[in-house]
Design brief:
The protein is mainly α and 254 residues long. The protein is built from eight helices and no strands.
């Protein structure tokens, strides 16, 4: 166990780090709001624009979830010494959502360029799909490094599918009624029938589970290593480091 003075100094450092993390979380939330507003203003210029369609995109809905989650997490970081366990689960799930949105958008833009089809990427899309997901991932990783909050449970891998499942059901039902789908692979007329839709959804399921499992594993691995390093007693001047291998003392000369 580290001495009380050292433990107090480390606790003070953690509190300061959490305050900085809280400010960072709130700034990312503000940036996400700017991205949503900017993207909404951008798509207003399209002739076939419909507000209901805009708010039906998984990217937009996950962006709103990110704003709410980041604001809650920012307040907890500023006002408390640790986050509740449920918030770690929620932050992990939302981080997965925004990261996957960025990955899918990047793949769509890349595929379009190979097929001589141009897709404009305004500054709002750059923020929405690339900048904010990267910053959200940094905020999530920083929390793991601090190792103050509880570790993310493995059950998160199952919980991450709850929202996408409801979104998929809503999108398929609404798409059949209005004749519009936010993504081509949900339109059975574009992917060779419902078998094609099921295949793409299965692929998306695997991506969700894989990324979530990777984040949960990373959180738990970093958390253990950070806690281990933090709990080691500080070496006294002239003494070997606690983790240094012991060297047998030479035999006394007779």
């Amino acid at each position: 166990m580290p001495p009380p003075a050292t433990a107090g100094a480390r606790a003070l450092q953690v509190r300061r780090a959490r305050r900085l993390l809280g400010v960072f979380r709130l700034l990312v939330a503000v940036l996400e709001v700017v991205a949503i507003v900017g993207n909404y203003q951008y798509v207003l210029g399209f002739r076939l624009f419909q507000t209901a369609n805009f708010f039906s995109y998984f990217t937009i809905q996950s962006a709103f979830l990110a704003v709410i989650t980041l604001v809650i997490a920012g307040c907890f970081a500023l006002l408390t010494t640790r986050d509740p366990a449920w918030l770690g689960v929620l932050r992990t799930m939302v981080t997965v959502y925004v990261v996957i949105s960025g990955i899918v958008f990047g793949l769509i833009v890349t595929q379009a360029s190979t097929r001589a089809y141009r897709i404009d990427v305004p500054w709002s899309d750059t923020l929405l799909h690339f900048v904010v997901p990267a910053l959200a991932l940094i905020a999530w990783t920083t929390d793991s490094i601090l190792a103050v909050n509880p570790r993310v449970p493995w059950q998160t891998i199952g919980w991450v599918l709850i929202y996408p499942s409801f979104w998929l059901w809503y999108t398929l039902v609404r798409g059949q009624e209005v004749g519009w789908f936010p993504y081509f692979f949900l339109d059975e007329t574009q992917v060779g029938g419902w078998g094609g839709v099921a295949a793409y959804c299965t692929l998306c399921l695997a991506i969700f589970l894989s990324i979530t499992a990777a984040l949960v594993w990373l959180n738990r691995w970093v958390w253990v290593r950070a806690r281990t390093a933090r709990d080691l007693p500080a070496p006294q001047p002239g003494s070997p480091h606690p983790t240094a291998p012991r060297v047998a003392a030479p035999a006394l000369r007779r």
